Amino acid sequence: MSDSPSTTALRVPLATLDGTLHLPLVGLGTYGLRGDPGYRSLRDALDVGYRLLDTATMYENEEEVGRAVADAALPDVRITTKLHHEHAGREDEFLERSLRLLRVDVLDLWLIHWPPGGQARPDVWERMVAAREAGRVRAVGVSNYSLAQLDELTDATGVTPAVNQVKWGPALHDADLLAAHRDRGVVLEGYSPFKATDRTAEPLRAAADRHGVSVEQVVVRWHVQHGVVVIPKSGDRGRQARNRDVEGFALTDDEVAAIDALGR
Length: 264
Fold this sequence. Notes:
- This protein is of the alpha/beta class.
- Helices cover 40% and strands 17% of the residues.
- Strand 8, helix 6 and strand 9 (187-191) form a beta-alpha-beta unit.
- Helix 1 (35-47) packs across helix 2 (62-72) and helix 2 (62-72) packs across helix 3.
């Protein structure tokens, strides 16, 4: 694979949420991308083909994300933001704030950032679902929830979160947990994929050497082949392009199994 940034929007597989919303399996985490430097990094990410940007109220960069997307004027960008757990009970207020800062009338994906007070809080979930039913949000989900907490929300409301965003990577791989999300119809989305793994691990280095790519590309491709949405964060245009450039190779079954084993 080329180390030079590409301005071509490579084809990235999609996950389907609630049967209607298509989410790229490779997106950009935006934590820390603030101010004019953050705006320029976000524009770079859109230029090299990212079509999913993940932000949150607590990142304090929704304005930069909204400005970058508006200025890029692309028709197919998906935006995720997250309700801070301390704002439980003020869902409508913070949704309106996010919509205003992001410069959109409808948000693509809205998540509860952490279980408020460590609890599932079906009452908060009910208000998230109500926002979706009112047409203000296309899909709703959660972040950092356990399986038991997911089930509590479903049992209380009859609505299962479309997404659970958790820290994920080869060193955290848990086949049973991944299967349990699929059984529930919940798309698993992984953040901090590089921090969650020792990038010097032999299976990653061997696969990178075999395919002529970076270890980071191997990690991203591993997520894609498991059907896990991955949102690596980088403010550097070259790294952004390389991290997303994973369509020109495929890991073998043996390579995937060896990388999976890092989670044991």
